[in-house]
Amino acid sequence: MTRAHQSDNHGSLQHFVLPDAELLFWPEWLPQAQAERCYQQLAHELNWQQPAIKIFGKAVLIPRQQVWMGDPHCSYKYSGVLFEPEPWHPLVKQLTDRVNQACQSQFNSVLLNWYADGQQHMGWHSDDEPELGNNPHIASLSLGQKRFFDLKHKSLGTQLKLELGQGSLLLMTGPCQANWLHRVPKMAAATEGRINLTFREIKQKTT
Ligand SMILES: O=C(O)CCC(=O)C(=O)O
Ligand SMILES: [Fe+2]
């Protein structure tokens, strides 16, 4: 199911061909020291927020902090809340350009998530908002504490668990978002923080 080969200077590439999805995974896309510097800079320099979203009609604080960043037209509606993008931070812009090259994509926006420790998490969901269009590419760059990333097929129930370590890059392609859910579960053993950047291409203006 997987095959590994060398890819330029970004370490080995693993290719997962799953039912209704394809994943490309570079476990060591950024060197450790560079990933650590990126983590520190983003932790200190971004305007982190912990917004409330609506779950079954009730306002609940999300169990992590986040920043939505991108081109000016890239508004994003998520769990009933419309987020306007923060202007590009130069480091995030630089990473986006490099990820676009590696993934041959045109990402124009990024959701950054900061999990302060293993209690902070993200529940099962798909990145299937209409403004992303059909079969969107979603790339995910991880900095800091390594965390598990679970995927579950919506009808087959097939599950896959990946470990997203510091500097890893994961690309979800094919009809992955239509057919699979993903999550970052709580992890009691995780004491350090993790920042994840998920790159998206907003196709049209949200009204
Ligand atoms: O933190 C992660 O690895 C996943 C983030 C995610 O799924 C999202 O932002 O939609
Ligand atoms: Fe997601």
From TrEMBL:
Q: Which UniProt keywords apply?
A: Dioxygenase, Oxidoreductase
Question: Origin, by domain of life?
Answer: Bacteria
GO-annotated molecular function: dioxygenase activity
- Offer one Pfam family short name for this entry: 2OG-FeII_Oxy_2
Q: PANTHER family, per this entry? A: ALPHA-KETOGLUTARATE-DEPENDENT DIOXYGENASE ALKB HOMOLOG 2 (PTHR31573), DNA OXIDATIVE DEMETHYLASE ALKBH2 (PTHR31573:SF1)
User: What is the protein named?
Assistant: Alkylated DNA repair dioxygenase AlkB
- Keyword field contains Ubl conjugation: no
Residues in Fe2OG dioxygenase domain copies: 106-203
For whether the record's keyword set contains Oxidoreductase, the answer is yes
Q: Per its UniProt record, what PROSITE patterns does this chain match?
A: FE2OG_OXY
